[in-house]
Amino acid sequence: MDLEVTKAITESWFARLQENLCFDAAIVGTGPSGLIAAVKLADAGYKVSMFESKLAPGGGMWGGAMLFSSIAVQNEAVYLLDELEIPYKRYNENLVVCDSVLATSALIYQASKRGVVIHNGMSVEDVVFMDNRVSGVVVNWGPVVREGLHVDPLSFRAKIVVDATGHPCMISETAARKNNITLNTPTGKVCGECSLNAVEGEAMTVENTKEIYPGLYVCGMAANGVFGSPRMGPIFGGMLLSGEKVAKLIIEELK
């Protein structure tokens, strides 16, 4: 039985890997903006793979604020909760509140149900850069990267790469630094996020969601980090709307 279990796991996993070496969109980071983007792209018929360096997808949404498992979403994004059947309670005329664990697990489930491949425990350490375009991702095991082990990575090809890595905006920073390219930002590089301003941060998260170099898009907190805008704290409407916006932009390009 033990060998049958091993064979079943390895054969099914490697078959899925072989089927997903090339895809339409690679989303790096599996927080709420990345998951919404994956759902919308999959609904439009595109092949999507997500990469998460940690064991559990979901980004910072699991913990709510200071481990209080409740998150706030403003009215403008409530329709996305309705679309994905995520329950919520009305707090006041401006906000609803959701259970953070339920909301996060629902986003993961909805993406997976649509055929989005989520590679957990995989860290994107570089991009594929060809003909002055970001054309894929370079991936290793998350623990290998964290331990600094000298193990060569593998590459995946994608028409579009989305930096949804949150505050560090690691993909944008790596692409700019290693290839000496000029990003579509005020400085041409990663500006770095500013301190908290919830109102401005929410608005700019959506405003900053765009293509910053051929083949490379940003969404969620990575967008604010790249463009030098404020963080917004434990409110998630802007993150959800950012994910929807980046999916719309990518769909327009892939058409």
Structure characterization notes:
40% of the residues lie in helices and 25% in strands. With 255 residues, the protein is of the alpha/beta class. The longest helix is centred in the first third of the chain and has 18 residues, at 2-19. The termini are far apart. The model has no long low-confidence stretch (mean pLDDT 96).
Q: What is the global morphology?
A: globular
Order of helices and strands: HEHEEHEEHEEEHEHHEEHH
How much of the polypeptide forms β-strand, as a percent range? 15-25%
- This entry's quaternary arrangement is single chain
Are there runs of 5+ residues with pLDDT below 50, and where?
none
Total DSSP helices: 9
Pfam families: Thi4
Family: Belongs to the THI4 family.
Keywords: Iron, Metal-binding, NAD, Thiamine biosynthesis, Transferase
Protein name: Thiamine thiazole synthase
